[in-house]
Amino acid sequence: AVAACRAFESAVGELLETLRVAPRAVAHDLHPDFHNTRFALEFAARRGLPAIGVQHHHAHIAAVAAEHRLDGPLLGLALDGVGLGVDGGAWGGELLRVEGGRCARLGHLRPLALPGGDRAAREPWRMAIAALHALGRCDEVARRYPGVHGTTLVRMLDGAVNCPTTSSAGRVFDAAAGLLGVSTMQAFEGEAPMRLERLAAQHGPAEPLPDAYAIDAAGRLDLLPLLGCMAQVDRSNENAVGRAAAAFHATLAAALADWVRARVAATGLARVAFGGGCFHNRVLGAALRARLEAEGLQVFEATRLPPSDSGLALGQAWVAAQALD
Predict the structure, then answer these.
(1) Is residue 21 domain-shared with residue 121, that is, in the same domain?
(2) What is the C-alpha separation between 8 and 25, in angstroms, rounded?
(3) Cα dist. 21→11, 15, 25, 63, 134 in Å?
(4) Considering the domain boundaries, does residue 227 fall inside one?
(5) Range of the domain at 246
């Protein structure tokens, strides 16, 4: 980690020397504990430059807007693992209105608890238990997950001890993978969603499950019923798990399309940008794009840069440039 931080600082110096530019401002993520945020603030202070904080998911959508040179307002659907929200919360399933340097949160996924905090992002069985707890099915935990501290997690969830909440779409994928037995421990970030996507791709198209999601008046998309459907699947039956993985993707695409459609009707905006690491998932992305384009909406995605955090710098720079202008 230390070597990576030093390499980052060295790269900044080399870029300034090579490009021979005089920065007008420094853009950075809102998270105060990131090394690059601290570096940006110190760099700006030393040079007397404005430091412009850019919310993580705003930057995801801004990167797509920058790539496609989109002026004016648009809807942004940002789905990823996590990013610090303007309220200090862990965001990751966001519907945004983005216009230049301005961003408004129009809706988000119903939050799920993260039992054990960041460990829940590495251990999908934790997210599965969080879903079972929210569904009122804690009596199934010991049977489903023997050999782990499942009952301890239930007590933590009961008392909201070290169980922050998140609107992350990535954690919904983790919960589904954990409930289906596809992945309980991840060897690397995103492994559980990748396994789930592979099963869905191998199975082929599926129909959305009925009554598996809800959208409330505040713009929250509730996917807990979908996770309840995943909990009903016989995990020992490979064919059933494959069907469930395909149905999960189909239902999620339908839910997201309905969610976006509701905001299109409310705002009159007909351009939608996809951003965030969940859009590496081709099964989800293709199904969602098809649904929205069938409604006559324009859909924009990252093509020259990845939709994940590798594109954040472009989005941050674009927001900063808009703010300066």
Answers:
(1) no
(2) 18
(3) 14, 9, 12, 21, 53
(4) yes
(5) 112-300
